[in-house]
Amino acid sequence: EEKTYVKGLGFCSFGIGSNTAAVDVNNGRISRIRPLHYDWKYQSEEFNPWKIEARGKVFQPTMKTLLPPFSLAYKKRVYSPNRIRYPLKRVDWDPSGERHPENRGKSNFVRISWDEAAEIVAGEIKRVHKQYGPYGILCQIDGHGESKAVHGPHGYSGTLLELMGGFTLQARNPDSWEGWHWGAKHAWGMNPNGLMRPQTNIFPDVAENTELMLFWGCDPETTPWGWDGQLASRLCYWFTELGIECIYICPDLNYGAAVHADKWIPIKPNTDAALHLAIAYTWITEGTYD
Asked: What are the residue boundaries of the Pyrogallol hydroxytransferase large subunit-like N-terminal domain, all occurrences included (predicted)?
């Protein structure tokens, strides 16, 4: 018997509902993953879809989700022989006795039950709390991860430890949030703190008023896959239709630059700050800033 399930296959757990797919399951196994067609059960008129109109052209959503490659190929990950499907424990590691840290990466593993794994984790949390305090636990939950509620980086592990007295949070370099969190508020005059969706109101402004767009160190053809599928790609093609010139500054000729750039500036790595200062100097000395 074949059934179809609607499943979010996004790459980040705060991208709720992103990259929604139709997953066909035959006798308990995934047979294929395909885009969700919104007219599967509804008529397009029932959605009252939004539209962006600018310069005599219209941009509107498609009637199906625009899945990225990793979502379409997720079946391969589910049935990969390398996937760890059950809890495993090192054969010579005893949480209540000898732990043999010298054998990490050497000794084999044995399968254990989910109940035993839960007991071990709970026991280790209690042990660390008693010996070192709650902040003796380092929690790596600040990064991107799959759209899962329990074990994703933005999931409930931090909530659990917070309720137990706190924890030490790993803080990466801000290689994702920094641009739109700090840069956007200066460029657009708003503060989408903790949210990504308010910035979507920027697109009508860009479409109506922009003559030139600068893409600095980004690739809209691949980077946004985990959140909005191919939407960024469609927008970039539409900006070109509107006559907006696009300049890409990046050391590599990435996919976005190869497809959309009217001009590609192959800057040398680690010289961005020098170029920033040079541009600002030109603005000030020649009076070309607004």
From this structure: 23-75
For residue 70, what pLDDT band results from cuts at 50, 70 and 90? confident
* Distance, CA of 227 to CA of 200 (rounded, Å): 13
Sign of CA dihedral 170, 175, 180, 186: positive
Is residue 8 helix, strand or coil? strand
Spell out the CATH class of 2-78: mainly beta
In whole angstroms, what is the distance from residue 85 CA to residue 117 CA?
13
- Element housing 282 (H / E): helix 272-286
Nearest Cα residue to 64 out of 39, 93, 100, 91 = 39
SS3 at position 201: helix
Tell me the pTM: 0.75
Q: Where in the chain is the domain with CATH 2.20.25.340?
A: 2-78
User: Helix H segments across 56-145?
Assistant: 69-72, 74-78, 114-132
In the chain, the DSSP E strands lie at 2-8, 20-26, 29-35, 52-54, 57-59, 88-90, 109-111, 138-139, 168-169, 212-216, 245-249, 263-265
CATH of span 177-286 = 3.40.228.10
Q: Are 13 and 152 in contact (CB under 8 A)?
A: yes
Quick check: 146 and 226 in contact, CB under 8 A?
A: no
